[in-house]
Amino acid sequence: MTIKEITDRIDGKVICCEEKLANSVEYAFASDLMSDVLTIEKENMVLITGLANLQTIRTSEMSDISCIIFARDKKIGEEMVTLARENNMILVESPHSVFHISGELYKAGLKSIY
Amino acid sequence: MQFRHKIAGGDFAKAGNVASSLKKVLRQLNIDHTVSKRIVIALYEGEVNVVAHAYSGVIEVEIDEEKVKINITDKGPGIIDIEKAMKEGYSTATSQVREMGFGAGMGLSNMKKNSDLMKISSVPGEGTIVELLNYIRPDAR
Ligand SMILES: Nc1ncnc2c1ncn2[C@@H]1O[C@H](COP(=O)(O)OP(=O)(O)O)[C@@H](O)[C@H]1O
Ligand SMILES: [Mg+2]
């Protein structure tokens, strides 16, 4: 599924790296626990999270996650955007909950990891 | 190739800077992606541990043709029972650490999983040394 399709389904607002919306992903993982995200070996996934801080971006950098969806309109700081840009990451804000976003994207065919 | 970075305890904004720069170096050296990812993830959790649990630390990285060796040395409270600390789920992390997305007691076990060899030594009240070793050839493990 392309990131564009994903953002459309969750009323997402793209905060950075719009030029990459045509990229596609196969998997999604939802967690606020970065240590958990760091155990995942699969790539080609989006992270759905309620945790908005620099470590969310750092974790995604280490795990080669190219798109992060922040649930419930979490504030995405300037430093986060700068770091995401450096790493060619797409940041998306959605007004919906982690549960709602996960449900929509699962229904649309994104695969779960476990 | 060798380099050395200092890190400050409590400085969450910078946690991960060393792992990030090593990631770039490993990419430049054309190290196998799976191998490099394991190294970078182990170092990141190690770096977060110094920031979360110690007062200050030094990370030394040594890369040669066959391996990447990382020593994370910190001044801090040390670990009294290393075996217990290694257990998944054991954590003394503060709520501040948990707000950063860590503190579930999964770091050390993931570091072990992502390294070919890991050694921890610690003097309670003084500090901790974590040594990580990864072979560069994916089939050398
Ligand atoms: N560098 C360190 N200095 C002191 N204690 C540490 C250090 N690293 C780990 N520990 C101890 O081991 C526990 C488990 O570490 P870890 O598995 O990384 O989980 P977490 O950091 O999420 O608590 C920590 O909660 C802490 O008590
Ligand atoms: Mg830890």
What layout of secondary structure does this protein have?
The complex is a heterodimer of chains A (114) and B (141).
Chain A: H1 3-9, E1 13-16, E2 27-30, H2 34-37, E3 45-49, H3 54-62, E4 67-70, H4 78-86, E5 90-93, H5 98-107, E6 111-112
Parallel strand pairs in A: 2-3, 2-6, 3-4, 4-5
Antiparallel strand pairs in A: 1-5
Chain B: E1 2-8, H1 17-28, H2 33-53, E2 56-63, E3 67-75, H3 82-86, H4 95-99, H5 107-113, E4 117-123, E5 127-135
Antiparallel strand pairs in B: 1-2, 2-3, 3-5, 4-5
Question: Outline of this structure?
Answer:
The complex is a heterodimer of chains A (about 110) and B (about 140). Chain A has about 110 residues and is of the alpha/beta class. Chain A has 5 helices and 6 strands.
Could you explain the architecture of this structure?
The complex is a heterodimer of chains A (114) and B (141). Chain A has 114 residues and is of the alpha/beta class. Chain A has one domain (3-112): HprK N-terminal domain-like (Udp-n-acetylmuramoylalanyl-d-glutamate--2,6- Diaminopimelate Ligase, Chain: A, domain 1), CATH 3.40.1390.20. Chain A is 34% helix and 20% strand. Chain A has helices at 3-9, 34-37, 54-62, 78-86, 98-107; strands spanning 13-16, 27-30, 45-49, 67-70, 90-93, 111-112. In chain A, strands 1-5-4-3-2-6 form a 6-stranded mixed sheet. Chain A is globular. Chain B is an alpha+beta fold and 141 residues long. Chain B has a single domain, classed as Heat Shock Protein 90. Chain B has 5 helices and 5 strands; from the N terminus they run βααββαααββ. Chain B has helices at 17-28, 33-53, 82-86, 95-99, 107-113; strands at 2-8, 56-63, 67-75, 117-123, 127-135. In chain B, strands 1-2-3-5-4 form a 5-stranded antiparallel sheet, covered by helices on one side. Chain B starts with a strand and ends in a 6-residue tail after the last strand. Chain A binds chain B through residues 32-39, 51, 53-56, 58-59, 61-64, 79, and chain B through 12-13, 15-16, 19-20, 23, 37, 40-41, 44-45, 48, 99-104, 106-107, 110, 113. The structure holds adenosine-5'-diphosphate and magnesium ion. Magnesium ion binds next to α2 of chain B.
